[in-house]
Amino acid sequence: MSNTAQIFSASPELLKQQMSFIGHYLNHPTLSPALCACIRMLVSDKNSCSYCIDFNASLLINLFNWTPKEVEAMRSDPCNARLNDKEKAMLLFVLKAVRTPHDVNASDVQALRELGYNDGEILDATNHGARMSAVDIIFNAFKIEKDF
Q: pTM for this one?
């Protein structure tokens, strides 16, 4: 059992919720796995969760063929993410929503709609970033060790 599953196994209901959460985003019909990995990594970067930073960097490198330099460039400036313009806009919106939610306004949401996102997709992506902050808090508080 992975360290992440082990930590959640102390509460079977939370483990079930966490597995459902992961499954929802792994199989999301419109938010790409690479976009989701970028969201998780950059939210975790801000929260200094080394487990999540390294895990998602590994996904970007090993599954999506990013170079380590591309990952570092994105960490330095999210505008450098190797995503298409539409996905990059979503990434930047989620980071704004998670880091400074009071600064998000209707025009930010409207800009995503104009790119073709619907309200459900905007909520899903924002929820992904917000829930990642919660996971970071748990992993940091309980000092989860890397097992990958």
A: 0.94
